[in-house]
Here is the input.
Amino acid sequence: MKPSRLALPCLVLGAALAGPAQAQTEIQWWHSMGGALGEWVNDLAKDFNASQKDYKVVPTFKGSYDESMTAAIAAFRAGNAPHILQVFEVGTATMMASKGAIVPVGKVMADAGQKFDPKIYVPAVAGYYTAPNGQMLSFPFNSSTPVFHYNKDAFKAAGLDPENPPKTWPEVALAAAKLKASGHKCPFTTSWQSWTQLESFSAWHNVEFATKRNGFGGLDTRLAFTTPLHVRHIENLANMAKQGLFVYKGRGNAADATFVSGECAMATATSALYGSIKRNSKFASGISTLPYYPDVPGAPQNTVIGGASLWVMSGKKPAEYKGVAQFFAHLSKPTSPPPATSAPATCRSRCPRSS
Here is the structure.
């Protein structure tokens, strides 16, 4: 049935009064999470976008942590930086010093009226991203820590107990010798050498890595890893290398793939490697704590945080910052589960150094 002459003007008037639908405010999020972790990041954004209609988070993979940080610096100078940037913990000091380029996450949340309690995080995580005045500067996102990965199948083949991994460095050397004797060409390797073998090694043995409270006490910090213990450890690794017990596989996370493939039987690497191991390896694996020297008083103590946090870039509109704050509040909910492939930010880690 055709509408009456009276109904037609009413329909037109109703459409005019309704007006166009209000466009969502887009929040650009640059990250460095690839593989399974990249899928998780996309799911987080989808979950938030589906939970409300005002904002749309757009995650974009920008390559490695180094690459994404470099791209963000260039974008900031050009006036088109993202709203949110994932920065690995190595870049934390740089971001802290870039006061004009970032807005402290504590301020973003307070200005938007969002509740944000840094105490929900493990103190070591919250403290790492907090300024001396107590204000949290970035949002803890993915955290990991260096651990000891080992191939249980290789251990069995070498006559080692797969449920009893080496806990000390002398035990690592003995296990490596048995693995080599059983035919393994790469008994032990390591990723992130400076992080696992110097920085975390120092914390694990309760010795200084750098002056000024390991760098937190001032910009005139000096490295301090030339102690007899540090020298002894590097010499031990060198001797293991000469014997074919330790095999150097490259810088950064280059060695990760050699463990996942089964080429190397033991590795010190990030806990975030667990996801790749579970997804891609064809052997039974185990995880243990970093090795230590049993004759060092106070060892083992603790390892060092890794992973990354989310920084809010400056120069955006107030409405956009409200969207950022709402997204962070969403991520803080207990109903937003962490990925099965990486440690959540409520435990220490260098997560995706490997992703």
Summary: The first strand starts at residue 25 and ends at 31.
